Amino acid sequence: xxxxxxxxxxxxxxxxxxxxxxxxxxxxxxRNTVEFVPSESAHGFKLSFGEIQEFKRNRLSKKAFxxxxxxxxxxxxxxxxxxxxxxxxxxxxNNFARN
Length: 99
Prior knowledge:
By secondary structure, this protein is α+β, with helices and mostly antiparallel strands.
């Protein structure tokens, strides 16, 4: 099983609710991988769960979430731009990572 979400990927640090530099794409959560496939650029990624240090909602904006890879955060926001969607994405990742 898996789930797919259309998301905005921020190219800047998330210090507020305003995101100016971003691209859109598909975030695929699957049993063993997380994959981001951008629709407008070439900086997507595919990661195994072992490569992810952290996957959680942001402290400053609960509408956004991040995936920490090494020392770098990849920041995202769901299409609905709501804290409920970010919470759902993080909860699904946590469920897939446990199983």
